[in-house]
Amino acid sequence: MKKRHFIIIAIIIIIIGILLIWLLWPLAGASQKIKFSVIGDVDNDGLDEKLVVLEKRGYYGPDLPFWLDKNIDDYGNHLFVYKLETGEPELQWGSSTIPHEIFDMEIKDVDNDGLNDLAVSSEIGDYVMEWRDFGFREK
Ligand SMILES: [Ca+2]
Ligand SMILES: [Ca+2]
Q1: Which single residue of 48, 66, 74, 97 could bond 59 by disulfide (Cβ 3.0 to 4.6 Å)?
Q2: Does 35 lie in the same domain as 95?
Q3: CA 118 from chain center: how many Å?
């Protein structure tokens, strides 16, 4: 009798385990998620852009740098800048992996020089970036 109970309990545990794997499998494949976005004229051309911070698995996209055979499979933050003037957001620029977590960003003129900057709050502290030709530089 006890052996029979043990077998029934083992079968129930196996069925629950299979159900959990089946239910959670789609989550295991989720390799990226949008953390937040902000809108403003970050490149100071008079038109707003949408900046999106993405949490993503893998340091690079499908095209790897020549010195790597395979992608680095860690989670990291990526920043993308989209133009908004055509209705559909159009990718203007995207970063490779940012080696620290970004908590918040704000597009504003931090140093009162008449040009917008990107004020970033992150796990390594607050810092200010500015748009230069094609990409951001720390101020
Ligand atoms: Ca702009
Ligand atoms: Ca400024």
Answers
A1: 97
A2: yes
A3: 17
